[in-house]
Amino acid sequence: MRARAKWLLAAAFACVAVWAGWTYSRSAELRHGAELYAEHCANCHGAQLEGQPDWQIADEGGVLPAPPHDESGHTWHHDDAMLTDYIRRGGQAVLDDMGVRMTSGMPAFGEVLEEGDIAAILAFIKSSWPDRIRAVQAERNGG
Ligand code: HEC
């Protein structure tokens, strides 16, 4: 009985250690994502992910302002592959590939950011969404 109790205690400690490790690395990723976002994205997409004013209305040149990344925007309508591609190659390359005739104001960050950086920024953006929205977007990733 005592051995069993000791084993249970050890198992409980192991669980807490794994959970704490996971929480720690996750919060480190979110911090990294928030820093990169502030440095590279906030001047267009807003410090609070709020986007530019009247972001649904294109300027005279037909270029749309930067949309919000919070739940009021449409970032969560897209799967991770599309979002990563948009950030890596920029809006124009992706729109051209899709045959969408539109000029994009979204620059390419493939030369500036590593894949892990882009993932961290996306994790940070997702952390601003309510659970309901996060679940809808996760479904678009096929789970
Ligand atoms: C120079 C301004 C500018 C900067 C800097 C910028 N963006 Fe954008 N971004 C835009 C504009 C404008 C659009 C909308 C036009 C379009 O969709 O092609 C956009 C669109 C996007 C989209 C796709 C639209 C959607 O559904 O949300 C994503 C994702 C995105 N940006 C992420 C980022 C990230 C991440 C960064 C920082 C690494 C960043 N952007 C930096 C201007 C910018």
TrEMBL record:
InterPro entries, per the entry: Cyt_c-like_dom, Cyt_c-like_dom_sf, Cytochrome_c-type_DH
One Pfam family this sequence matches: Cytochrom_C
GO molecular function annotations of the record: electron transfer activity; heme binding; metal ion binding
Keywords: Heme, Iron, Metal-binding
Cytochrome c domain: residues covered: 28-129
Organism annotation: Paracoccus solventivorans
Protein name: Cytochrome c, mono-and diheme variants
